[in-house]
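WARN no homologs supplied; continuing
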Amino acid sequence: MQKNYKYLSIISVFFVSVLLISNVASTKIVDLKWFTFDGGTLLFPLSYIFGDILTEVYGYRQSRKVIWLGFFMALLMSLIFIIVGSLPSAPGWNNQNAYDLILGLTPRIVIASLFAYSAGEFSNSYILAKMKIWTKGKMLWSRTIGSTLVGELIDSILFILIAFWGILPSSLIITLIISNYLFKTGIEILFTPITYKVVSFLKKKENEDYYDTNTNFSPFSRE
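OK structure emitted
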C-alpha cells in the first residue's frame, strides 16, 4: 500500500530543480584560485544531498522514481534548448550568438550530462541503501559521505571525459575532475549536520524510516 507522504513531493521538486539549474550554470568554467570547475558545481552537490535524504527516509524505490524524473526533465530541457536555438530568429532579435554560447547545448554535452548524472545518482542511492542495512541504521554520516564519495567520483569522471575529451587540454581535464570531485565531496561533508536535521525531521513527520531489505535495485525495475 502506497503511503501518502507529505514532504516527498517537496524534496523531489528541490532535487529536480537543482539538477536543471546546475546544467544551465555548467556552461561557464569558473576559477576560484583553489578550484577550477564548471559553474554548476556550486549547486549540483545539493542534488546528492537531496538524493541521500530521499533514499535514507523513503527508500531506494522512491529515490529511483525521482532520479528518473530528473533524467527525463533534464532531457526535455536540453531538447527544448536545442530546438529553440535552431528555429529562425525574429527580425530585430540579434542575440542568437549569445543564446548559442549559453544555451546552445551540443548533443555531446547532453549525453555527457545525462549519462554521468544517472550513473552517479543510482550508484549513490544504491550504496547508501545497502550501507543502511549493513550499519543497521546507525552512523548516518558514514552512509551520506561514503555514498557521495563513490557517486560524485563516477559523475565527475564521466561528465568531464565525455563532454570535454579532445576539446580541452588533458591537463585542464584532470584539473577539472579533481577540482569538481574535491569541491562536491567537501560540500557534502560540510552539510552533514544539516542533513542530519532534515532526515530526523522527515522521519518523524512522515513516520517512515525505510530499509531496502527486499528491494530490486535495478534502475529499470518498476517494483
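Residues 8-206 form a domain with the Arp2/3 complex 21 kDa subunit ARPC3 fold (CATH 1.10.1760).
OK
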